[in-house]
Structures are given as C-alpha cells and as structure tokens.
Amino acid sequence: TFFSPDEYWQSLEVAHEYVFGYGYLTWEWTHKVRGFTHPMLFALGLEETEWIILAPKVFQAVFAAIGDIYTYKLAGKLFGNGAAKWALVSSLICFFNFFCAVRTFSNSIETSLTAVAMFYWPWNYTSKTTWTASHIRNLQISLAFAAIACILRPTNAVIWLYLGTTLLTQLPLPSLPTSLLSVTLIALTLSTLLDYTFYNEWTLVPLTFLRFNLSHGISTFYGIHTWHWYLSQGIPIVLFTFTPLTIYTALTTRVRGVRGVLGFTVLVYSLVAHKEFRFIMPLLPVSLGAAGDALYGMQVGVGGKFRFRAVVVGLVLTNAIAAFYLGVVHQRGVVDVMGWLRKRSSEDGGVLFLMPCHSTPFYSHLHRKDIEMRFITCEPPLEPSIDKKSYQDESDVFYADPVAFVDTYFSKDKTFAASGKRTRTDRLLSVPGQDSYQIQEYVWPSRVVLFQALLKDVCTLWVCHQFNLNV
Asked: Which label site among 64, 196, 271, 462 has the fewest CB atoms less than 10 Å from its CB?
C-alpha cells in the first residue's frame, strides 16, 4: 500500500537514477538538499525488476528487526527484564511499526539506529558512577550510531541535544566533548564523500537543508499544522492503543531521562510548522519500552489476570485490524498500477499520471527505459523573492479547473492515439500570475492513469472516447 511519496521518491527513485542512469529527481536533489547516504543503501544495481522492488523491502525488514531487538534490549536496560519481554511484544504488534518500519523511509532506518544508540547510552549514571573503559566504549558506540541517524535525518539531533546536555550538566565528562567532536567529524566527512559521488561536486548538504527549510521556509509549503498536532493527533495515531500505557510510565517512572527525552523532543518538534506522523518514529523504541513496563506492572500487580489479559487481547486486536487494513487494503491501487504498467508492451506508448504529484512510485517500480512517463508536478517556490501566498504549483493550477488546464496546456493534435509514445512537445507555455515557471505542453499518450473522481471531468473532453477503460 501507499503511505507517503518519500518512500519512493527520496530513496528508491534516486538510487534507480544513480545505478541505471534514468529516473526522476525531485527538486530536493537538483538543489542538493538531500544527502545520498540513505539512497546509497538501495543502489544495488539488480537488473531483474522483481528483485529491484523486493530487495529494498527485505533490506528494510532487516533494519526493522534490528529495531525490534534493540527495543527489547533498551527496555531491559531501562525497566528490567520483565518489561523487556512486553516491550518486544509491543514492538511486534504495534501497527505503526508493521505499517511503516519496513518502508524505505529514512525515518525507518533512523528509528532502528536510534534504538541502538539509546541502548548504548549511559542512562543509569549517577554522581558516584566510576567510568571504566567499557563505559567510554559504549558511549562512543552510542555517539557513532546517533551521528549516522543525524546524517540520515538532521532532526534526530534534537534527541541527542537533550540527552547530551543532561549528561554534561549532571556528570561532566572531560572525554565527552572530544568523543562527540571526533564522531561528528568522521560521520560528516564520510557523508560528504558519499554526497560527492552522487552530485559530482563538493557540497555540505546539512547547510543546504537548513537554508531551504529554515531561512526559506520551504517545509511549510507541504502543510502547516497547529502546535498541539503531535499531542492531539501524532502520538495517539503512532502509538495508537499503546498511548495510555506509554503516558502512564512516562509520568510515573523514576528512570532518569525517559520523561525528559520524550517531552523535550515532542516540544521542539511541535515548534516546527510542518509535521508528519513518521517524524516521531524515533521515539517509538523508548515509548514502546515504557508501554512494556506498564504491561509488566499489570501482569505482576494486584489488578487481576482478567484485566491484564483483556488489555493484551485489546492491544492485539486493535493493532492487527489497523495493520491489515492500512498495510494490505488502503491505497494499494497506486502501487498495483505500476506492476500492471510494467507488463505492457513498449509499443503501447507513454504514460501520463493525471493525479496529485508523486501519488505513485515511478521508474524504480517500472524499470522500463523505453516507456516515457509524466505527471503533474508540484515544485515549491524555491526563490525567496516569490510570493508564497499567491504561488500556485502545476497541481494547483490543474485541480482548480481540470478541463481548462487540458484545454490550455495540452496539444490540440487529435492524432495522439496513433503513436502515443510521447507525453510532451517542445513548447513552453506561460502560467498566468506565475512568473517562476512555465509548463511544457502536454501530449496525450496512449495510457492515462487517474483516480475515479477525475474520470467524469476527463470524459467531458473530446479525448475520452479514444481510450479503453481499465479499472
């Protein structure tokens, strides 16, 4: 099923373009906002199409399993062996893990790396702690995994800002700044080298990322959410029926740092206008560890076995239903259509996606260089001088009036169905009120992919009778 475009467009599509020399690079890559570390993991170069699609899923599943294992180990370290068992159960039945952890998001690998880093982090320190070589080595391992997570997702630094500051202020370690600086420099050097292999020029992606998202405010183009969104929607959806258990432990635990890292991270993330469910995935390991502690407390408490069993059955049923529906049924058509297109003959011609931009996978799931494809774009206003309030991308213009869009920006040539291999002409057409871009004139190819809601609008045009309908 489909969840978010980044699963394909910021990982698999980039890797496909790098390995095979064709694909579609979104504006983040043409403007060097993204680092190549994550797509590099999927640049396998496999020629068999089914393996190109399957191998990244298997690879990501391995990382998801690592996340499960270290959620178990982290819970054991923080709350004890009894809680660890139920933390593992929670991680395995958590619908959001099932739904998202095996997808090729950078957030998914970030979550597993965060679980590993948190396990090696010195949570149980006191002023009387004697720091041995083993303690220092574990701290360095933690910092190394944290650094990789931050390279994949710079926002992961918020977690380590809290944990690191707390460690320094409560138990100063002369070696910590040195270790932190060394790990950071090594990680930044390696990521810069990887970015050079992709961009063929030296660039500091983290600086570009900050420039576009902070000074230009590009992230707000993809949605602005209220300050309490993570509290009112994000956490209740991601943790789902585990939410009360996690909150209970977070409020009552005496384990140093758990309540603070959860609260601080959610607070800082809430200050950012653009929010998504998957952005708080790195908090799942410690959150599910806390849920496991609450479950263990119920198991050994005086509340009775019936209540405990009812809670466990409720958790299993609610998460299983959500996992099945969202992972197998909901929004699967936009993924299935790529398999259908892949089996068509190259003589069938090009493909046009008349739907919101990035609604489907692209060449990473087609792997057919002989088929030209095109979709309605949605490039954000990248220049600071552009008035963001009046800016409309191509998708906005299309959905404002689909019939007028087709009448204005599609070729009037009625012989398209004869050849149908191209999706565009060489003509560039201006867009009223939008001086920052032009639209390359469309040509009707022999295959058009669209949602049923738009079918009526398309059928009002003179082109509908020239197509056979496949549902």
From this structure: 271
How many residues are present in the chain?
Answer: 471
Judge residue 287's burial from the number of C-beta atoms within 10 Å of its C-beta, 0-12 exposed, 13-18 middle, 19 or more buried: buried
Task: Please tell me the distance from the alpha carbon of residue 317 to that of residue 12, in angstroms, as a whole number.
Answer: 33
Q: What is the mean pLDDT of residues 417-434?
A: 73
Are residues 370 and 339 located together in one domain of the fold?
yes
Chosen domain end from 275, 307, 329: 329
Instruction: Read off the pLDDT of residues 98-136 as tens digits, 9 standing for 90 and up.
Output: 999 999 999 999 999 999 999 999 988 766 667 788 888
Q: Which pLDDT band, with edges at 50, 70 and 90, does 171 fall under? A: low
**CA 193/CA 190 separation, integer angstroms:** 5
- H helices of 200-234, in order, are 205-210, 229
The sheet with strand 447-450 has its strands ordered as 373-375, 351-354, 447-450
- CA geometry: angle 32, 354, 108, nearest 5 deg: 45
Contact 91, 286 (CB under 8 A): no
DSSP at 410: B
Is residue 161 located within the same domain as residue 252? yes
pTM: 0.92
CA 318/CA 313 separation, integer angstroms: 9
The answer to whether 214 touches 174, Cβ cutoff 8 Å, is no
157 pairs with which residues across the strands?
none
Cβ pair 287, 253 in contact under 8 A: no
Number of folded domains in the chain? 2
Answer yes or no: do 38 and 150 share one domain: yes
Please name which of 275, 316, 278 lies closest in space to residue 295, comparing C-alpha atoms: 316
Same domain, 252 and 345: no
Same domain? For 311 and 339 the reply is: no
Other beta carbons within 10 angstroms of residue 96's beta carbon come to 22
